[in-house]
What does this fold into?
Amino acid sequence: MKQCNWEVEDTAPPILGQAQKANDPNGLKTLSQPVRVSYLTEQTSHHPPVSAFFVSCPQKGISARGFDQLSAKFTGTSIRVTPGAHNLGIFITVHSRDNEEYQLTHPAAHLGGLLRGNLSVTVADTCFVTCQKSGLKVILQYVEEGWLGKAQNRVLGVIYKCDPETDQRTRIKDVPEKDVLARVEGCWHDKVYYTLSGSKESFLLVDLNPLFPFWSGVTQAILNKQYNQATKLKQELEERQRGKASSRKVQNEEWKPRFFTGSVTPVGKPDLTEEGIMALKGLQDGNYHLDESLTLGA
It folds into this structure.
């Protein structure tokens, strides 16, 4: 189980332009004010390894949840990483807009350079953002890199109106211009912009640069080549978990997650238990204390 808070300043660019945001009746005025984002996660299944997570930001009227599970396959020259069977994406609820729920699916990624010792991550896939209530759908295409030249990490997208339950379009070029509300373009390592339909003016949607310094410690550990120690600790942990599972089976005990209502759900959306709700509320209040769990791990 992990829990944490992020204290950030609301410097995100307004989606409709600064003047329009100030007059937006659905907008929550937090511009240039500290905003607290709380995160709670728990491993809900060990075989297969699955973790549930919940993110909450009451000041902005937004929450998100989902299951974290990855599947990796060696393709001969690289490793292809895809969402696992229980990972159906991130489900974001905008409470200030009549609880609109947006499902964001994950693209596949490739870890290459294994044979040359020069590791790199590339994404060349299509993913989607859909909302049944608003009738909005986004097709995001991560552009495949060429063999020559520097990686561009480009992403293109189109936002349009449709019936998400029946819409089968998976390519940007298949969306007729009359349905397009906006287009998206940029670099998923840098900045992403959007352009409203009928306009040539681009607006900043998100600046991803501040995210990457947080991974410097992980990157350094990989560069130090401490693989044997990491593998040893992982194997020891897995063996302890297998021992606990065997002991519970002998005693006919069923393990249940502490903060989430089930190990997995068929719709990919975990629900919080009463203890999970209280833990998340405590985070929002700046209280990190939790009583020690009587059951350690799945």
Remarks:
- The first strand starts at residue 2 and ends at 9.
- The CA atoms of residues 190 and 247 lie 49 Å apart.
- The first helix runs from residue 18 to 22.
